[in-house]
Design goal:
Elements (H helix, E strand, L loop, with lengths): L44 E5 L3 H15 L7 E5 L10 H6 L7 E4 L6 E4 L1 H12 L7 H31 L5 H24 L10 H14 L16 H11 L2 H8 L17 H9 L3
Parallel strand pairs: 1-2
Antiparallel strand pairs: 1-3, 3-4
Bound molecules: glutathione (GSH).
The site of glutathione has 10 residues, from loops.
InterPro entries: Glutathione-S-Trfase_C-like, Glutathione-S-Trfase_C_sf, Glutathione_S-Trfase, Glutathione_S-Trfase_N, GST_C, Thioredoxin-like_sf
Protein name: Glutathione-dependent disulfide-bond oxidoreductase
Family: Belongs to the GST superfamily.
Length: about 290
């Protein structure tokens, strides 16, 4: 790898490994790499995931639904170790041909329902349980605007800024500048909106907040990419207020630790099969 100017060849070919944190799992082809069925537990919902920002959207949602009393949202959460290529097993690819976590299997009906893309999982669960998505059409649209905003914007934060600031094999000024500028623009979009609104869709907490918090809320809290100082996040006080408010919700505290295998012992729970699994972890002293 070199930071010398690069002249692309006529035809791109795959040279492996290309370097960087995820080099060993990145490939230019889709499909399974090995035959392996996924485990299944006893609950109606089976989640296959890891506690990355996209993964915790699903576990926070499920914990919020359980907190609201929707017992049909009971779930087994199985760990997919993306660094070890579990997302390329035949069983996982059957649920998500895109080989990315999170993926959900709903076994409650006559036919299994396969759900992938974290935004689709949030919408599916909100509609299934009639919760966390406003009923009023204008407010519902507001929530969906921000849900889709998150799905379209976060790749610039994660795949752009995060990749070049943290994971790339070399620190390169051009991409870090470009994506830091875009990340700050997005933070300002949120800050301005939250100056006028308690939550993303107005007064009602919704799937839009659940989608945005694990990326942008965690970023301003210094939990993602350790970039709070670099991105001067003190410039976004309304976003900070909203993030602190969301982070304190019991379902968020619970959902964050599911399928997490790093950090403090009381914040790690590789698999979740009952509420007691989370209770026991959280009860461990730091
Ligand atoms: N747009 C997808 C993105 C999912 C995604 O990028 N997941 C990452 C972890 S946060 C992943 O599974 N990476 C493994 C890989 O790229 O092989 C979603 O929101 O569900």
């Amino acid at each position: 790898m070199s930071s010398q100017p690069y002249t692309p060849p006529k035809v791109w070919t795959w040279e492996q490994p290309s370097g960087g944190h995820f080099a060993s799992i990145n490939r230019p082809i889709a499909g399974p790499t090995h035959d392996k069925a996924l485990p299944q537990g006893k609950h109606p919902l089976q989640l296959y995931s890891m506690a990355t920002p996209n993964g915790v959207k699903a576990t926070i949602m499920l914990e919020e639904l359980l907190a609201l009393g929707h017992t049909g949202a009971e779930y087994d959460a199985w760990l997919i170790r993306i660094g070890e290529g579990d997302q390329f097993s035949s069983g996982f690819v059957e649920i998500n041909p895109n080989s990315k976590i999170p993926a959900l299997l709903d076994l409650s009906g006559s036919e299994p329902v396969r759900v992938f893309e974290s935004g689709s999982i949030l919408l599916y669960l909100a509609e299934k349980f009639g919760a966390l998505l406003p009923q009023d059409p204008a407010k519902r649209t507001q929530a969906l605007n921000w849900l889709f905003w998150q799905m379209g914007s976060a790749p610039y934060l994660g795949g752009g800024f995060g990749h070049f600031y943290v994971y790339a094999p070399e620190k390169l000024e051009y991409p870090i500048n470009r994506f830091a500028m875009e990340a700050k623009r997005q933070l300002d979009v949120l800050n301005r909106h939250l100056a006028e609104n308690t939550y993303m869709a107005g007064e009602e907490y919704s799937i839009a907040d659940i989608a945005i918090y694990p990326w942008y809320g965690a970023l301003v809290q210094g939990l993602v990419y350790n970039a709070a100082e670099f991105l001067s996040v003190h410039e976004y006080p309304h976003l900070q207020r909203w993030a602190d408010n969301i982070a304190a919700r019991p379902a968020v505290i619970r959902g964050r630790i599911v399928n997490r295998v790093w950090g403090e012992e009381n914040e790690q729970l590789a698999e979740r099969h009952s509420a007691a699994d989370i209770d026991q972890r959280l009860a461990l002293k730091k």
